[in-house]
Amino acid sequence: MPAIAKNELRFAINLGNAVLAKSLPDGEPGGITVEIAQKLADALARTANFITYPAAGKVVEDAQSDRWDIAFLAVDPEREKVLRFTQPYIAIQGTLLVRAESHWHSVEQMDNSDTVINVGKGAAYDLHLTRQLQHAALNRFGSSQEAIDAFLHGEGDMAAGIRQPLERAARENQGYRVLPDNFGTIRQAICVPHLHGDLFDSIRALLTQWQEDGSIQQIIDRQLATL
After folding, report:
1. pTM metric for this prediction
2. What single DSSP character describes residue 111?
3. Domain spanning 92-184: which superfamily?
4. Whether 181 contacts 106, CB under 8 Å
5. pLDDT digits (tens, 9 = 90+) for 175-224
6. Residue-range domain boundaries for the chain
7. Which of 17, 30, 149, 204 has a 20 to 30 A CA-CA distance from 54?
Protein backbone atom coordinates (compact mmCIF):
# COMPACT_ATOMS: atom_id res chain seq x y z
CA MET A 1 0.00 0.00 0.00
CA PRO A 2 1.45 3.42 -0.94
CA ALA A 3 2.47 5.81 1.81
CA ILE A 4 -0.24 8.23 2.93
CA ALA A 5 0.60 11.94 3.01
CA LYS A 6 -0.09 13.52 6.39
CA ASN A 7 -2.33 16.21 4.93
CA GLU A 8 -4.18 13.83 2.61
CA LEU A 9 -7.77 12.68 2.93
CA ARG A 10 -8.62 9.56 0.94
CA PHE A 11 -12.19 9.62 -0.35
CA ALA A 12 -13.80 6.42 -1.61
CA ILE A 13 -16.00 7.37 -4.58
CA ASN A 14 -18.60 4.80 -5.64
CA LEU A 15 -19.04 5.11 -9.41
CA GLY A 16 -21.74 2.44 -9.26
CA ASN A 17 -24.26 5.07 -8.19
CA ALA A 18 -24.60 7.26 -11.28
CA VAL A 19 -26.78 9.78 -9.46
CA LEU A 20 -23.98 10.61 -7.04
CA ALA A 21 -20.74 10.06 -8.97
CA LYS A 22 -19.47 9.54 -12.52
CA SER A 23 -16.33 9.45 -14.62
CA LEU A 24 -15.73 12.70 -16.49
CA PRO A 25 -14.40 12.79 -20.09
CA ASP A 26 -10.86 13.35 -18.78
CA GLY A 27 -11.11 10.20 -16.64
CA GLU A 28 -11.39 12.05 -13.34
CA PRO A 29 -14.37 11.45 -11.04
CA GLY A 30 -17.11 14.05 -10.77
CA GLY A 31 -20.60 14.49 -9.39
CA ILE A 32 -22.29 15.21 -6.08
CA THR A 33 -20.03 13.13 -3.85
CA VAL A 34 -16.83 14.40 -5.46
CA GLU A 35 -17.92 18.02 -5.00
CA ILE A 36 -18.86 17.41 -1.36
CA ALA A 37 -15.56 15.58 -0.81
CA GLN A 38 -13.58 18.52 -2.16
CA LYS A 39 -15.59 20.89 0.04
CA LEU A 40 -14.76 18.73 3.08
CA ALA A 41 -11.07 18.60 2.21
CA ASP A 42 -10.93 22.38 1.79
CA ALA A 43 -12.71 22.98 5.10
CA LEU A 44 -10.31 20.63 6.92
CA ALA A 45 -7.26 22.12 5.16
CA ARG A 46 -6.42 18.75 3.64
CA THR A 47 -5.67 17.49 0.13
CA ALA A 48 -8.37 15.30 -1.46
CA ASN A 49 -7.29 11.98 -2.94
CA PHE A 50 -10.10 10.24 -4.82
CA ILE A 51 -10.14 6.43 -4.87
CA THR A 52 -12.81 5.19 -7.26
CA TYR A 53 -14.79 1.97 -6.93
CA PRO A 54 -17.15 0.31 -9.44
CA ALA A 55 -19.63 -0.69 -6.74
CA ALA A 56 -20.52 -0.02 -3.10
CA GLY A 57 -19.82 -3.57 -1.93
CA LYS A 58 -16.07 -3.24 -2.46
CA VAL A 59 -16.02 0.12 -0.65
CA VAL A 60 -17.48 -1.59 2.41
CA GLU A 61 -15.07 -4.52 2.06
CA ASP A 62 -12.10 -2.15 2.14
CA ALA A 63 -13.38 -0.25 5.18
CA GLN A 64 -11.37 -2.42 7.57
CA SER A 65 -8.20 -2.42 5.45
CA ASP A 66 -7.28 1.27 5.89
CA ARG A 67 -7.63 1.92 2.15
CA TRP A 68 -9.78 5.05 2.50
CA ASP A 69 -10.76 7.61 5.13
CA ILE A 70 -14.18 8.93 4.09
CA ALA A 71 -16.90 7.50 1.85
CA PHE A 72 -20.41 8.29 0.64
CA LEU A 73 -22.76 5.34 0.99
CA ALA A 74 -26.36 4.45 1.73
CA VAL A 75 -27.15 3.95 5.39
CA ASP A 76 -27.76 0.28 6.14
CA PRO A 77 -27.78 -1.74 9.39
CA GLU A 78 -25.35 -4.31 7.98
CA ARG A 79 -22.87 -1.61 7.01
CA GLU A 80 -23.10 0.03 10.42
CA LYS A 81 -21.14 -2.91 11.80
CA VAL A 82 -17.99 -1.44 10.24
CA LEU A 83 -18.99 2.14 9.39
CA ARG A 84 -20.20 5.20 11.25
CA PHE A 85 -22.71 7.31 9.32
CA THR A 86 -23.64 10.98 9.50
CA GLN A 87 -27.19 12.13 9.02
CA PRO A 88 -28.36 11.67 5.38
CA TYR A 89 -27.60 14.45 2.92
CA ILE A 90 -29.91 13.11 0.18
CA ALA A 91 -32.61 10.46 -0.19
CA ILE A 92 -33.04 8.63 -3.50
CA GLN A 93 -35.66 6.20 -4.73
CA GLY A 94 -35.23 2.49 -5.36
CA THR A 95 -37.47 1.08 -8.10
CA LEU A 96 -37.60 -1.37 -11.02
CA LEU A 97 -36.90 -1.39 -14.76
CA VAL A 98 -39.19 -3.79 -16.64
CA ARG A 99 -40.01 -4.66 -20.23
CA ALA A 100 -42.70 -2.45 -21.72
CA GLU A 101 -45.01 -5.38 -22.51
CA SER A 102 -44.69 -6.98 -19.05
CA HIS A 103 -47.62 -7.27 -16.66
CA TRP A 104 -45.83 -5.48 -13.81
CA HIS A 105 -47.26 -2.09 -12.85
CA SER A 106 -46.20 -1.81 -9.18
CA VAL A 107 -43.26 -2.86 -7.04
CA GLU A 108 -45.80 -4.69 -4.89
CA GLN A 109 -45.97 -7.34 -7.62
CA MET A 110 -42.26 -8.18 -7.57
CA ASP A 111 -42.06 -10.81 -4.84
CA ASN A 112 -43.06 -13.94 -6.75
CA SER A 113 -41.30 -17.31 -6.86
CA ASP A 114 -41.01 -17.18 -10.68
CA THR A 115 -39.42 -13.70 -10.74
CA VAL A 116 -35.68 -13.05 -11.15
CA ILE A 117 -34.49 -9.54 -10.26
CA ASN A 118 -31.10 -8.25 -11.39
CA VAL A 119 -29.21 -6.25 -8.74
CA GLY A 120 -25.74 -4.85 -8.16
CA LYS A 121 -24.09 -7.04 -5.53
CA GLY A 122 -23.73 -5.24 -2.22
CA ALA A 123 -25.68 -2.17 -3.33
CA ALA A 124 -28.03 -0.63 -0.76
CA TYR A 125 -31.08 -1.89 -2.60
CA ASP A 126 -29.55 -5.41 -2.79
CA LEU A 127 -29.22 -5.39 1.01
CA HIS A 128 -32.75 -4.03 1.36
CA LEU A 129 -34.33 -6.56 -1.00
CA THR A 130 -32.37 -9.43 0.54
CA ARG A 131 -34.09 -8.66 3.83
CA GLN A 132 -37.53 -7.94 2.40
CA LEU A 133 -38.15 -10.49 -0.36
CA GLN A 134 -39.47 -13.92 0.52
CA HIS A 135 -40.06 -15.51 -2.89
CA ALA A 136 -38.33 -13.68 -5.79
CA ALA A 137 -34.73 -14.55 -6.68
CA LEU A 138 -31.97 -11.95 -6.79
CA ASN A 139 -29.46 -12.25 -9.63
CA ARG A 140 -26.35 -10.39 -8.42
CA PHE A 141 -23.84 -8.63 -10.68
CA GLY A 142 -20.56 -6.82 -10.09
CA SER A 143 -22.18 -3.38 -10.30
CA SER A 144 -25.56 -1.72 -10.73
CA GLN A 145 -24.76 -0.90 -14.35
CA GLU A 146 -23.85 -4.52 -15.06
CA ALA A 147 -27.23 -5.58 -13.63
CA ILE A 148 -29.01 -3.12 -15.94
CA ASP A 149 -26.95 -4.14 -18.99
CA ALA A 150 -27.63 -7.83 -18.37
CA PHE A 151 -31.35 -7.13 -18.21
CA LEU A 152 -31.21 -5.16 -21.45
CA HIS A 153 -29.53 -8.20 -23.02
CA GLY A 154 -32.32 -10.53 -21.92
CA GLU A 155 -31.19 -11.80 -18.53
CA GLY A 156 -33.67 -11.62 -15.66
CA ASP A 157 -37.26 -10.41 -15.44
CA MET A 158 -36.48 -6.92 -14.14
CA ALA A 159 -33.60 -4.80 -12.85
CA ALA A 160 -33.68 -3.09 -9.47
CA GLY A 161 -31.85 0.16 -8.88
CA ILE A 162 -31.95 3.88 -8.38
CA ARG A 163 -34.68 5.65 -10.31
CA GLN A 164 -32.62 8.09 -12.40
CA PRO A 165 -30.24 5.55 -14.02
CA LEU A 166 -33.16 3.21 -14.69
CA GLU A 167 -35.15 6.01 -16.32
CA ARG A 168 -32.14 6.86 -18.47
CA ALA A 169 -31.86 3.22 -19.57
CA ALA A 170 -35.56 3.23 -20.50
CA ARG A 171 -35.17 6.42 -22.52
CA GLU A 172 -32.15 5.10 -24.40
CA ASN A 173 -33.49 1.59 -25.07
CA GLN A 174 -36.85 1.12 -26.74
CA GLY A 175 -39.19 -1.42 -25.16
CA TYR A 176 -38.56 -0.72 -21.48
CA ARG A 177 -40.24 1.31 -18.74
CA VAL A 178 -39.71 2.15 -15.08
CA LEU A 179 -42.40 1.44 -12.51
CA PRO A 180 -44.04 4.56 -11.03
CA ASP A 181 -43.68 3.57 -7.37
CA ASN A 182 -40.70 2.70 -5.16
CA PHE A 183 -39.73 -0.29 -3.02
CA GLY A 184 -37.70 1.93 -0.73
CA THR A 185 -36.09 5.28 -0.10
CA ILE A 186 -32.31 5.03 0.05
CA ARG A 187 -30.76 7.46 2.54
CA GLN A 188 -27.26 8.49 1.46
CA ALA A 189 -24.80 9.72 4.09
CA ILE A 190 -21.11 10.39 4.67
CA CYS A 191 -19.34 7.63 6.57
CA VAL A 192 -16.00 6.70 8.08
CA PRO A 193 -14.64 3.31 9.16
CA HIS A 194 -14.77 2.81 12.90
CA LEU A 195 -10.96 2.88 12.91
CA HIS A 196 -11.08 6.49 11.61
CA GLY A 197 -13.67 7.68 14.10
CA ASP A 198 -11.57 10.74 14.98
CA LEU A 199 -12.78 12.39 11.75
CA PHE A 200 -16.44 11.80 12.41
CA ASP A 201 -17.39 14.71 14.66
CA SER A 202 -15.78 17.28 12.36
CA ILE A 203 -17.48 15.82 9.28
CA ARG A 204 -20.88 15.71 10.94
CA ALA A 205 -20.56 19.30 12.18
CA LEU A 206 -19.58 20.56 8.72
CA LEU A 207 -22.42 18.67 7.06
CA THR A 208 -24.90 20.09 9.56
CA GLN A 209 -23.64 23.61 8.92
CA TRP A 210 -23.86 23.17 5.13
CA GLN A 211 -27.34 21.71 5.32
CA GLU A 212 -28.47 24.66 7.40
CA ASP A 213 -26.97 27.27 5.06
CA GLY A 214 -28.23 25.49 1.93
CA SER A 215 -24.85 24.86 0.30
CA ILE A 216 -25.26 21.06 0.19
CA GLN A 217 -28.64 21.41 -1.51
CA GLN A 218 -27.09 23.81 -4.04
CA ILE A 219 -24.51 21.15 -4.95
CA ILE A 220 -27.21 18.50 -5.28
CA ASP A 221 -29.50 20.67 -7.41
CA ARG A 222 -26.66 21.76 -9.71
CA GLN A 223 -25.35 18.23 -10.24
CA LEU A 224 -28.77 16.64 -10.71
CA ALA A 225 -29.51 19.17 -13.44
CA THR A 226 -26.68 17.62 -15.48
CA LEU A 227 -28.09 14.06 -15.42
Report:
1. 0.80
2. -
3. Periplasmic binding protein-like II (3.40.190.10)
4. yes
5. 999 999 999 898 999 999 997 778 999 999 999 999 999 999 999 988 88
6. 8-91+187-224, 92-184
7. 204
